[in-house]
Amino acid sequence: MHRPATTARGTGVRTRGKVAIGAGAAVAALAVAGVVWGPGLYADWANSQAEAAPVLDVGDPVEDPASLDGRWTAQPGSYAGYRVDEVLRGENATATGRTEQVEAEVMLDDGAVTAATVTVDMASVATDQPPRDRYFRTSALATDVFPTATFELTEPAPLPAGATAVDLTGDLTIHGVTRQVTVAAELGATGQDAVQVVGSIPVTFADYDVEAPSLGFVRVQDAGFVEFSLVLARAG
């Protein structure tokens, strides 16, 4: 589920040079696997390891949005991460990283989302390949300096009665850089005390001062997606 999301404006939180990402040993290790197996076999294997895009698992359209008014927080089962495409000698492969180290607080008032903050522990994001994860945490995103990514709602978002779709506009901060995005999300409710919110945000790495890795014969595309699934429970 990659529904379109648009970037309205960008504001750099701090100015610094782009992170140089090139001939990291971890990326080289992944590339060697592709060379040994052959690009086609490696791509098939990598695609089989990729996680499915987040979708609504439970819940129904919200018939009475005002019934959800109150404070909601993330529960076990929530996750966030990324989806990127790698190219090895002309063969495309998808890689996904996930973490359940996610904190979220959402406020609803008069049938609208009036505040929302999501914080993701980037150092815990993991794929099926530890070498890729080490490269991601050190060279790509410098999680020792920028340990979290955040989303903060900046505009109220009314919940349409009888629908699951909701547009969430806010500030997305990755690698210490903040950009305003509008997320085409989906929301489903089970009774009055359980809500799931899922979404996918297109991200261009250069917008966050991150340069996609490339070793010539294997490279990561210049853009990917931030994905999330939040399981929320009423907190008050």
TrEMBL record:
One Pfam family this sequence matches: YceI
TM region positions: 20-42
Gene3D superfamilies with a match to the protein in the record: Lipid/polyisoprenoid-binding, YceI-like
InterPro entries, sorted: Lipid/polyisoprenoid-bd_YceI, TTHA0802/YceI-like_sf
Keyword Transmembrane appears in the UniProt entry: yes
Residue ranges constituting the Lipid/polyisoprenoid-binding YceI-like domain according to the UniProt record: 71-233
Highest taxon, organism lineage: Bacteria
Presence of the UniProt keyword Glycosyltransferase in the record: no
Keywords: Membrane, Transmembrane, Transmembrane helix
Entry's family note: Belongs to the UPF0312 family.
Protein name: YceI family protein
Species in which this protein is naturally found: Xylanimonas cellulosilytica (strain DSM 15894 / JCM 12276 / CECT 5975 / KCTC 9989 / LMG 20990 / NBRC 107835 / XIL07)
Lineage: Bacteria, Bacillati, Actinomycetota, Actinomycetes, Micrococcales
